[in-house]
Amino acid sequence: MQKKYLISFVFLLASTVTTSCYRENLKSKSFVQAVEVKTIDKKASVAPDKTSSRSIQVKATLDKNAVLNQEFFYSANLQYSSIYDKHDDLYTQSLAQGLIPVHFRIAGNELDLIADNRDQFPSDVNHPERLISRFQILSQTDTTLTISEGNSSVYLAGIANSDSKGVGPANLKATETSTMISPQEHWVRSFEFAAEGQYLLQESSVDIGTDQIVEFMEAIFPRENMKASDSFKVYQMNPDSPAGGTEGYVARYRFLNTDRIFNGESKLAFAEHFDLPSEQATIDWYVTPNIPDEDLAPVGLAVEGWNRYFRNFKAMHRDILKFKGRLPQGIHLGDPRYNVINWDSRLVAGAAYESQSYDPSNGKQANAIIYMPAAWIKIGMDYWANGEFSEIGEAQAAAQSRSSRLKSVCFRDMHEAAAYLASGKLRVRSEEDLKNFGIELLKQTLFHEVGHALGLAHNFKGSLSYKPNDSSSIFSTSIMDYNDFEIERVAFEKIDSSSGPQLEYDRQALSVLYNNAQDVASSDPVLPTCNDAEADNEAGGVDPLCTRYDIEHDPSASILTAVNRIYQSSLPADVRHDITLSEAILQIPKTILSAQTLANIKTKSDFEHLVQKISSSLDGALNYYLSTGRSSLGYATRTNLKMLYKFGGQALPSDYDPQIMRERVYSGVTEILKLNTLPAGVLSALSKAVETSLEAVKLTPYLSALETSESNQVLVDQQDKMNAHVQSFSKDQKLGLPAMRTKMLTAMARHPAVPFFFGKFDKTQVDYEMLILIQLSDVLTAKDRTSTERLAAAKSLASFSGRKLGDDVIAKAVLSLSAERDASDNSDSRDLAESLLKALSSPVESTANLLLTN
Ligand SMILES: [Zn+2]
User: Which of 107, 108, 137, 214 has a CA 20 to 30 Å removed from the CA of 257?
Assistant: First the structure.
């Protein structure tokens, strides 16, 4: 530590020659009167398009009375970091951390910024305070304090290690769960005071060790700034209720709620939203300056898409959202006065999300930040053009097993969109259409994220209103559902317009937050809704209709649709314009093999690369339809598996039949477990696609240059190779049918909190626990199953240990496996039997099935 200090001191002396220096005199009424800034060093930067930042030294003169006798808010918004989050394939960045009530206190030769944490504890007496930042006092008089820049490095490193807000590096968490990351070094990059509103703004960087840097925008401003206007409606919510409330608007709609605070013994939370203090007030949005010109327009249209509601609101009739383009020069990401879309130009980014800062005592929002990867718009043009989709299945599997770190914010999964394109499911007719899909995807995603910024939580029941056979039916009553990306394209009338349909749930919820519910008539329907907490809720049983990514009136119908897509050659024409797996497979050659692509195939290696690309794209389609896509048979069955559990809460609406729903899901389970070969129609589509592809590649310069006999031989060889490749899908344990079955078997483990349904339908007794146990034991004891499947079945079966029925089935399986071991005639088969027996006898806490499929 000592050494480090000395080194930087030398640096300081050496670099004073080149410092830039400015001095600013401010109004005497302000708590800050003058600021002097000196550049002392150059440091690393992790902001995109920037390799270094300056390190500065500050001398600021404060008004002692204003500083010590006033309440302030402190906010620290994460700007950028070098923390790579491999689950979400992005660099953790742009996260608002909320506003913390703070005050200043002199302690010796330091001015300390303290959070008294009064609102975090039920007791008025016992509320351990927290030191946020320390400023050195350089000199003082009776009325002034002259201080250095602030050092909040311990607090900021703590945020970087925090579980609750999700900034923490996942890779560090695994090994250092109990130890706090301590800051290795910190430096201040900028220090400014905005006289209007008295915002003290400091940009800080903290080196948290292991080569990781986090960059924050810190702000301190009078609490008075956040005073709500008369028109701001405070909605109190219940932090203990998954829905957010049990009566009134907070029960009818799903709002984002503030972190709970205490008011005496009672716990409180509030609906987060912006204040519109005057009749001219707008909610302004900016984007980071690195956005290319051509992407500005769609960003603006998406933000202003919400004006479609405000324009129709009673006594309002005006645009509330204004997109103002790039952030003004000198304004930094994370400034609490600005709502900013952080445009990430890198093409590694698996998700988009939103976060916001608010006054914890009433929910009034200061600012919101949206993380928006350019990859969403490039997906059509670059991702598809490169055809790099073969690994998507795995990438998506990783995304599914992520922790719930970003639970409080949104997670729109880009892998799904990429896989969607890869699958051939999108009805791409031209380059133009592909380009448009990218732009629409961006608009839809941003539209959804701005919905969060306005205070709306997810509503996974929006799609229950969807009736594909009715041409007047719209995809959802809410953009806050996770909708099917292609069906959601109608959220905007035209690609160059912000207009679109009025989604009824969103319209009502928005009126409650921003127009005192004047636009919710007593005759308006009360629409079904549920948020993330309810989708994962287990207390007393599950809600079978609260499902992410479904696009059906009855989510269990998605299993039937998925089966039809696999077995049929075409689907009945309806508003979904859905296509089957066979049709998608036949689309792949023509979308990959453009004239341009073919013209570029000049060498043997180009040719082999192209053939490889076609094969992996065909794999992509199979995977997407069978196992990994959100509408695949595997995913639809896994996510609906909770329909086999005990239902909780209220009775199902009368147009739902729990017996049919459960039977459908169970038939999905058995369908998957017996799916050992690809259906004949799919196989024939695959060989046809191979044939068409090879017909097309004949025209490449590489093949044309060969002798006819040589060229024919190459084609015959390739045809055999490609056919063998696609047929291996039935056996591929990592990506193919065995992988699909293994995932299903894993999801069949007993849920620790919710039992499988056991009861009567009409007069028939149904016991899904028994049926699941039989399925698991059948797979476990079948020697013709792959070892991975058998092991997954053993683990899931072991989770039933301690239940009478489970113990009986396990005992029988042990006998059978022991006999198999004794009868084995080689070490491999004996080891397999041993490992299955071991898995059976070591019951682990079953993974929560509901979370697995999120
Ligand atoms: Zn969301």
Answer: 214
